[in-house]
Amino acid sequence: MASSLRGEVLNLYKNLLYLGRDYPKGADYFKRRLKNVFLKNKDVKDPEKIKELIERGKFVMKELEALYFLRKYRAMKQRYYSDTNKTQ
């Protein structure tokens, strides 16, 4: 694997690990799953396949971020708008 791809893969792993701290099923669950996925693909040598896997990982990062933003939005909405629904 080229060193630039290796750096990208390591950066992706670190970013996903950081995002996994707030995962709904727990950080340990997320860390185990993440490690298993990366170990499953450790023998991939084709640079094009590695780039595809990196793009898939970036997609997962975006999905996790969306999940967290949605959870925050729902909590804020419940906190600030639940009183107006009760009075109607």
UniProtKB/TrEMBL annotation:
Outline the extent of the Complex 1 LYR protein domain.
8-62
One family name in Pfam for this protein: Complex1_LYR
Reading the lineage from the top rank, the first entry is: Eukaryota
Organism, scientific name: Rangifer tarandus platyrhynchus
Q: What does the similarity note say?
A: Belongs to the complex I LYR family.
What name does this protein carry?
A: Complex 1 LYR protein domain-containing protein
